[in-house]
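quick one before i forget lol
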Amino acid sequence: MSFSFAHPSLRRALAARSYVEPTPVQAAVMAPEAEDRDLLVSAQTGSGKTVAFGLALTKRLLGEGERFVKADAPRALIVAPTRELAIQVHNELTWLYAETGARITTCVGGMDPRRERDFLRSGVHIVVGTPGRLCDHLERGALSLGKVEAIVLDEADEMLDMGFREDLERLLGAAPVERRTLMFSATIPKDIAMLAKKYQKNALRVATATEHERHRDIEYIAVPIVPRERDLAVVNLLRYHDAPGALVFCATRDGVTRLAANLSERGFSVAALSGELSQRERNQALQALRDGRARVCVATDVAARGLDLPDLAIVIHADLPQNKQVMVHRSGRTGRAGRKGTAILIVPDAARRFAERLLHSAHLEAAWKMPPTSDDIRIRDQDQLVLDIRALTEDPTDDDRQVARTLLLDRSAEDLVAALVHQRRQARPAPEELTIPPSMRPARGPGSAPPRPTPNSRPPLTSKPAPRAERTERRLKEQPVEVDRRRTKSEPARPAQRDEAPRRDRDQDGQRGAGVWFTVNVGRSKNADPKWIVPLLCRRGGINKASIGKIQILARETRVEIAADVSDRFAEAARKPDAKDRNIQIELLDGAS
């Protein structure tokens, strides 16, 4: 099937963009039974729905004419949930209607409202905007909907989830009754059906995919973990899949900030998207993702609405979605336009039944797998390193060969290649050791041996706790209480943070050698955590984990013990400013020896 049904001007625009055959949603909205009718369309993001409603509006807006008449009040209104999606729709319609003389403008939050009002008053044919900004222009009299002949609600279910019902009803109520109304939604929940019944007439229901088919290009994987190792599981999943683009979802803005900082300190190129960012910061983060400077995006549900990222091969639900609609929207960012994608749910052991019900309600099947181990990642690294280094040998220059000949005079070829492999391996974030969650441990029969302890493992949940007095005595012996002499009177004494790094060599008496103490200007108030402080110390100070001793996290600072034999080198390196964490300062602790 071709685009023979399209308006001639639009047909030429499609041909220039190498559009050969319409997608299912494009063919459905242009079918004879859909002509000039209200439509309620369920289609996932990336199915070509922007071009679909662009094609569907031409009969109302252009008729048999080749070009639009002089612009006055808007004749079509397109409402999208986010400014990014609205701008994307504007760009698509601009090239699609390029030969028709259409004046198209956007009205979105974060942009200059005065400039938008001036453009509206000068006359436009099509307005694309977000609900809040459109209602603002409507109240101020800059936007008139009296001549609107068609309204499109793009991703209507997301707009209702974001609390825009009242704004949508105001816009629909201000437009003429004799208009065409098109609603596009990934799912058709009860709220959407009620909105359609109230504001549409004789609407044709168009379903381009069944519940089972909607995410047929997405592989679902459920990964059980112990709750405290969520961030570690994200690290290993990103390392193992090594996708050109990954989207990680968190439930809160604070969660986004912490996880993004954690991943950044481990060496991932990360961009964070949350509601607290300004439009300028958001644009910079999106641009970093699109041009490849950042390969991992950590975001909240609201911040990722309408997000369209190229080469997005994997979506990780670091925090489980609240319901199936949220899961469908999140996962639908990958596996688009016929490309394959992977959606991974990280499931704390206690939430396994909730995750199973969530998948069942969405008619989705997931493979339950353990997260990749450090050994799995190292094996995959070996294969990838071979491919990467082979690619480097495809087009060497004469200068490169001359340097190679010089090196071969006193080094073997194996040593040189091994050095290159080591350098490439060191550039990759280190994998983490994970605990096997109780739900994935083999069942113990009568008389069988107890489960083998795993790294970072706690005692089995079924083990009988020791008496309270015994536990208290053992805790006091293993973890002496250290008091910060500089704390305020209102701040209670806290036990010292236990060592998070491997212990250094001990002296002949078995005691730890004396180290030099440094202070870092972040503490509990800034969510300081050894998980990201240790990698920061190693990177800033040019040391390894074995050189780090005790870590004490106080209210507004963190104190760390560094081995004496590397302390001078550490101090000099850590004193230099760093582009990644300019606000974090590492200094010698007053009075430290």
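fyi The first strand starts at residue 39 and ends at 42.
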